[in-house]
Amino acid sequence: MTAPLRVIPLGGVGEIGRNMTVLEYRNDMLVVDCGLMFPEHDMLGVDLVIPDISYVVEHQDRLRGIIITHGHEDHLGALPYLLQELVSPVPIYASQLTSGLIAVRLREFKLLDMADMRVVEPGNIQRIEAFSVEFIHVAHSIPDALALAIDTPAGMVIHTGEYKLDLTPYRSSPTDLQRLAELGRRGVLLLLADSTNADRPGITPSEQEVTHALDHIFARAQGRIIVSTFASNISRVAQVIETAQRHGRRVAVIGRSMVDNVNMAIDLGYLTISRDELLRPHEVETMPPEQVCIVCTGSQGEPTSALVRMARGEHRAVSIRPGDTVILSATTIPGNEELVNRTINSLFRLGATVLYPPLHPVHVSGHASQEELKLMLSLVRPRFFMPIQGEYRHLVLHAQLAEQVGIPTEHIIVVESGTPVVVRPEQWWTEKPVGGEYIYVDGLGVGDVGAVVLRDRHRLAQDGFIVVVIVVERETGRLVQQPVLLSRGFVYMAEAEDLMEAAAHLVARSVVEAGPLSVEVEQEVRSQLERFFYERTRRHPMILPLVIQV
After folding, report:
1. What would you measure as the largest C-alpha separation in the chain, in angstroms?
2. Nearest of 127, 134, 128 to residue 158 by alpha carbon
3. Residues carrying CATH 3.10.20.580, the chain
4. H or E segment at 215?
5. What is the overall mean pLDDT for the chain?
6. What one-character DSSP code corresponds to residue 411?
7. What pLDDT was estimated at residue 448?
8. Among residues 170, 165, 120, which one has the least CA distance to residue 138?
9. More confident residue, 491 or 351
């Protein structure tokens, strides 16, 4: 009897980012994408969020390959963290540009030499143990994006990757609908489809609209033009460079990740410029402004990015000045609105003209809207449909679109990250959750920051903390001196002397009542001070008792 197919979304289902899906047939495992998510506003101090890869690591003896559908960070950014945990190299399949972006990322982690990279092209079919994978070209906001037709003994799975049905993509060809329709006629067991724009009616605008908008802006701008976008958005970078060349401007690339990706794209022939033609950052300030175009990072208001440092007047090579035109060519990621708005305000204060969506057509989405999603469903005609890559509302709305084109409700699978789905030709069911949790990357630490640490950070950010220094005799537990209280982020000590003196007396009394054991002293002091400060201030500072025995 044919075994069922097991599908485990470890990320990207019920959320934007962290895209990672595991497919299992008997003892063979295939991973599709391994992306990161940028932290939300309440994830204080966190640099990145990645999927919980522990399930894959624990079962790595069954891992036969990793496929990366395209080169955006939310699909490949967590790959180094997975590779670090694997005992031996596993083949990584990706298109040429995606492989180049992976190489840039792995080089940062000193993992490139041990990576087993396999470059694939649309139309290639790769046998990976129980899986036969066909790579299909799709149009997206980055070149070389792929959909996957994964044939298994249980049936065919189509994974759309991220796509739109752009009939006039920039320097690319449209999504290969003919091949998808052919596979649909053969019979598809399960469709896993991008849901990001399931709440947008109609059809997503073409990339050519951005080309026209850039031409219009470059023709009229008198000063320098600064364009900020994602470092991985090679299509947008190519559009800006070619527009600058048409209008007699030289291009400077600023921002470490942007420089690395642009150099890689030049070497692979994706950009119509040589390294020697690029302006050096120090040349930007001396060139006539009408001859300068800058491409940089910072479209999401990232604090250390090039554009944000320019907006704060802290960039060592470029200073924003009146007459500059700044273009933010990216959609703001949910949670980054405050950072982006702060950057825009700072740029305006410095006298720049700032153009950003939706007020100006300087960016279009790379994802299919409702009519395109319905067309994909109608062409593929899957027996079962599972929306992926979107927040929960997107999944539900995509499911409703599937019902509109005739897919039975009972054949539509709406789950969230971490829920395994088991599929047979005649039925599907879910199993006990596996992974799905957020893994936080903070500095060099991976996974050592969790909900408790974040909760402490919130308390520190909201109400500050009090350090209580208590010096007692080792043998008797009696106070050697009056307790000392230090406030940080709670009250200004010089203006709260009466409050802090009363708190010190309360601590002294608590030490006497608690007895000689330091643990009991700490617990009693913490409890008493929390109650005392809340009654006096209606705040909840974190209390950190420090008992020193002499």
Report:
1. 85
2. 134
3. 464-549
4. helix 208-220
5. 90
6. G
7. 47
8. 165
9. 351
DSSP line for 45-86: T--EEE---HHHHHTGGGEEEEE--SS-HHHHTTHHHHHTT-
Tokens describing residue 133: 């994978």
Q: What is the pLDDT of residue 20?
A: 97
Query: What is each CA distance from 440 to 12, 54, 108, in whole angstroms?
Result: 15, 14, 19
Task: Write the pLDDT tens digit of every residue in 328-351.
Answer: 999 887 778 888 999 999 999 999
Residues 291 and 249: their CA atoms lie apart, in Å, by 4
So what's the architecture of 464-549 in CATH? Roll (3.10)
Q: Residue 513 and residue 301: Cα distance in Å, rounded? A: 52
**Rounded-to-integer distance, Cα 518 and Cα 510, Å:** 12
Give the Cα-Cα-Cα angle 335, 336, 338 (nearest 5 degrees): 105
Strand 427-430, strand 421-424: pairing = antiparallel
Q: Shortest CA distance to 384 belongs to which of 403, 363, 407, 404?
A: 407
Tokens for 6? 């097991």
Beta strands in 206-324 (DSSP E): 225-228, 250-254, 292-296
For residue 96, pLDDT beyond 70:
yes
- Sheet bearing 382-388, strands edge to edge: 125-128, 131-137, 146-152, 155-159, 188-194, 382-388
Domain 208-355 part of CATH 3.40.50.2000? no
pLDDT of 222:
93
Give the CATH H-level superfamily of domain 5-202+365-446.
Answer: Ribonuclease Z/Hydroxyacylglutathione hydrolase-like (3.60.15.10)
Q: In the prediction, which pLDDT does 506 show?
A: 82
Place of tokens 């302006």: 279
pTM over cut 0.70: yes
Cα 230 to chain centroid distance, Å, stands at 11
User: Please, where in the chain does CATH 3.60.15.10 lie?
Assistant: 5-202+365-446
Which residues are designated catalytic? 194, 367
